[in-house]
Amino acid sequence: MRQSLSAEWLKLRHSRIGIVLAVLPVISLLIGCANYALNREVLTNGWYSLWTQVSLFYGEFFLPILVAIVCAWVCRLEHLNRNWNLVLTAPVPVAAVFMAKWIAASLLILLAQAMFMGLYGIAGLLLALPGPFPAETIGWALRGWYACLSISALQLGLSLRIRSFAVPVGFSLAAVLIGLGLYVAKWGIYFPYSLLTIGMHVLSRDALDPLREALFWTVNAGYGLLFAAWSVRGLKGRDAVTG
Amino acid sequence: MRVLKLEYYKIRRKKIVPMILLLLAAEMLWACMSNSLSISRNPDQAVWASILFMTASLNGLFMPLITAIVISRMCDMEHKGSTWKLLASLHVGRSRLYAAKFGCAGSLLLLAIAVQAAVMAVYGLAQGFPGGLPAAWLLRFIGGTMLATLAAAAIQQWIAMAARNQAFALCLGMLGGFIGLTAPLFPAGVRRWLIWSYYLDLAPVTYRYAESAGTFAAQPWDGRIAAAALGTAFLCFIFGNLHVARKEI
Fold first, then answer.
1. pTM of the full structure
2. Which end of chain B is more exposed for a tag (fewer CB within 10 A), N or C?
3. How high is the ipTM of this complex?
4. Contact criterion met (CB < 8 Å) for A166 and B170
């Protein structure tokens, strides 16, 4: 497992994925802050108002797409040349190959979330927002990351199966919309892409009631395990396509 | 013409058209549902302008991403199979191959926009919007959206052909979608510089905000924005073509 993980880091080294990870949080922050600064007389809730502006489009639309891009990225090298033959004949369990990719993708997304939060804090200080930095937003970002775990397990499963880089990203876009529809219909707690909206408190600041809170954690964990099992099964059972 | 035909031949089993239709279905479902919701709250919204404006707004998010996905798929197959080198060794100029790819992608995206117009027409007639089918508005919608899409497509194809890793092309598509979605928040002077905001600027209708409420209004055709879109498409196509044609494979 450790060997698989170090192999993943080796593959990611010098891959310039950092640019992709940095661009979106930075642009989201810039546009969110500009909108906040232009509408300060209406947005009177300080740090929380800034959160609504910077996290709305990022959490709702672009973080799931970023997850899809990261997952496609960590599977990209295997789809080139005859690398699947090489990976699947290596003396490591197939599950370890998947787990290493899942951990690598999760850490990259955590990095993006950390950068987003760091930029949010800096933006708040530069805008001279009243009051201290709201610690609960860190919890929201971490819950968003937790929701990303099940999404990344699903996206990895797709990216492992589909050779095209773009198709899993298109799937993510469609799933985001379905997730938004289910969130509006109050069914969001049962769909992984809506769980991200709920976890990051993108559309509502209200705390979840204990039942929904428990559902958030368990449904997400359930989806994560289910998608991970599906992905590993796919790797074990399907013939590798190389070329 | 034969080169263009071969582009269609290459993608015949790539399921690109079903994928476009799937994404469009999601977009149009969203547009129609939110429009129906607005009408149920405010019956004054039952006009053709409402669905046209809603679709143009959503296009700011969707069309850059759909464009990125379609073009990335068409270019990625050349990178993955190392077929670009094979094609370059044929008696066909690389510039013609590049143009054929652009033409093929452009035709698929035009089909997508035409489908959107057809869905809006069916939805509007089913809702019984007053005034009959606004053919002129629908044609302007197709023309304006296509101009903005061509500009986005030219940039996408340049990136997708120049960089083997399609993450950069898709990241650009995602950024375009982000800018397209947030475009109404920018001042007009800033929007001029962002081609992804042209989906709204070239739409036949706009939404004017008054003190307490807003109204839909016809938006006159802005020749300068149309020329800017066409110019961007032309320049990016030419520079992309030159860059890719001269690049070492």
1. 0.88
2. N
3. 0.81
4. yes
